[in-house]
């Protein structure tokens, strides 16, 4: 990719910047994308990306799934003063999780190239005037959701109910309580109750929670929310609370996991996932699917 700047721009305005990716063959793309299409940025094995692409095909629209490397090469971003032009003009659905924890054997050049692609995608998705599901902010590519549940709780305006420990080795609890010590592998997100460790080898994140938790999942998309069960807990208003959390975190789409108290009279936010899996998406697709079309293609019948 190349970058050009206009050195003659007035000092009061930012110089013109033009970022153009180095063209290489793009898999699965036979013609240029436009605003009637959808670009899904995800890894090739992302089941949700494939599911959404098939759904769009059924309603007569084209969706192309590209990984961050190939997606970045589609875009040109031109900035002049306070205006920006992103081409091609295409709606986007971003399913780009944070890069994995860098291991000792990671290739520096590969990491650098990936981050360069993410940077270009960040600019294109943030500056385009077309709809973007989970549009990046000026603060972060992945919104205010953090790898730390405590930091996410604070950003979401939720109470922080437990200490949180990060460790390169399997962390034993410092004390015994009537709650359980849950340990999560920070790379795979697999979670297990102490003393049974997750299958992967860390690094780890751990905190206290209920020994036998009961969960409700709420999926939120652009001002609408759907619960995944029909449990009689309407008094908790989890859809409304989920909408408020997602707005504070700067997300368009997310699945929120709430731990419901034993008596059904309380609920505590456990996790916010901007990239819900296919099982969760399918549970709410009856409302989620048509609403996704409305969000991506406003003013259109399909």
Structure in a nutshell:
The chain has 302 residues and is α+β, with helices and mostly antiparallel strands. It is built from seven helices and 16 strands.
Verbal overview:
- Residues 1-21 have a biased composition (Low complexity).
- Residues 1-28 are annotated as: Disordered.
- The protein has 302 residues and is an alpha+beta fold.
- It has a domain at 2-133: 3-Layer(aba) Sandwich (Rossmann fold).
- Helix content is 25%, strand content 25%.
- The protein has 7 helices and 16 strands.
- It has helices spanning 47-58, 68-72, 108-127, 149-155, 238-249, 278-283, 285-296, and strands spanning 2-5, 17-20, 38-41, 63-66, 76-80, 83-87, 92-94, 132-133, 164-167, 180-185, 191-193, 204-209, 214-221, 224-227, 253-260, 267-273.
- The strands form 4 sheets. It has a 4-stranded antiparallel beta sheet, with helices on one face. It has a 4-stranded parallel beta sheet with strand order 4-3-7-8. Strands 9-12-10-11 form a 4-stranded antiparallel beta sheet, with no helix packed on it.
- Strand 10 and strand 11 (191-193) form a beta hairpin.
- The longest helix is centred in the middle third of the chain and has 20 residues, at 108-127.
- It is globular, with a radius of gyration of 21 Å.
- The protein starts with a strand and ends in a 6-residue tail after the last helix.
- Mean pLDDT is 84; it is low at 1-24.
